[in-house]
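User: Please run a holo structure prediction.
Assistant: Happy to. Please share the sequence and the ligand.
User: Here you go; the ligand is guanosine-5'-diphosphate.
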Amino acid sequence: MSMKVLVTGGSGLVGQAIQHVVKEERGAKEGEEWIFLSSKDADLMKAEETLALFQKHRPTHVIHLAAMVGGLYRNMKYNLDFWRNNVYINDNVLNAAHEVGAIKVVSCLSTCIFPDKTTYPIDETMLHNGPPHESNFGYSYAKRMIDIHNRAYFQEHGRFYTAVIPTNVFGPHDNFCIDDGHVVPGLIHKTYTAKKEGKPLVVWGSGKPRRQFIYSLDLARLFLWVLCDYKEVEPIILSVGEEDEVSIKEAADAVVQAMGFEGAVEYDTSKSDGQFKKTASNAKLCRYRPDFKFTPFKQAMKETCDWFVANYDTARK
Ligand code: NAP
Ligand code: GDP
């Protein structure tokens, strides 16, 4: 069957990784067409623009990545915007996909949207079991509603619209903006500047919270598998193992090593730590893909740091 895949958010961190894997590793298959969108193609917060874009391309498959995205400190400031913008985008995209008859949509949730008070490890069945962490409730509830959409599209229309749940992602083409972005790109940018100016690297918070990081290229490879071979409506966590969870301090140490930074490292404990941990189980993924090999964290970190240094002038920052 010929496949026309529309990727919303195709210009972002995850979208660029999928472009790389499709073009450089997997190669587009016979009868397969990929279209990578950015916000320049349409403002997906607007229903008419979204529908017109989908009517123009008439995709059979959709990877839905577009979202208002940010790190802990941006989420804490703009819960209302994260809620409204993402609810509109998701409703418009899923409705437009259905209207043009797309047979599969894979959307993107996040392990940070799970209940805050929970047992560990978190698994796919626990998504709606209690309130999310207060720092990002707007983003979390908006993302959780994608799962409601997917279940309802299946119930009323038999659609196989599903979602993946990645942990913290990092890699080339990330948003390296220090105030708004996530921890890894923020630390890489701060280390670059500290090295250039001969100043200390300041890590925000205590360094004690724990995170599972997935390399954007590994996530992209798994996304393609989900698009082509995963048949469930229920979401699937895409994560490294629990044993690969690291503290923020360990992540900062990995950045320091990869950047060859020899200055002092300080911790600003006046800044929030956010959620302490969100340890996720990748047991479901391992059942489906026991063969999948994640890129070692330090190698992925080195590749990302090298990319940032080489692309400093044009990187998002
Ligand atoms: P990103 O780099 O910030 O990219 C966001 C993408 O969304 C960009 O292509 C952007 O287009 C597009 N976009 C934003 N608002 C839009 C709008 N109103 N209309 C059309 N397009 C719009 O984000 P990312 O990190 O790749 O995230 C991709 C997905 O993964 C998101 O759904 C996110 O929630 C999820 N996720 C991310 C992480 C993480 O750690 N980064 C973790 C878990 C889940 P422009 O480039 O034109 O602005
Ligand atoms: P989260 O995983 O959803 O909480 O989002 P982030 O990727 O923003 O990670 C936040 C964690 O990293 C918190 O524990 C912060 O205290 C810590 N952190 C340390 N330095 C930084 C930084 O420069 N930027 C960000 N965003 N977080 C940092």
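The longest helix spans residues 79-99.
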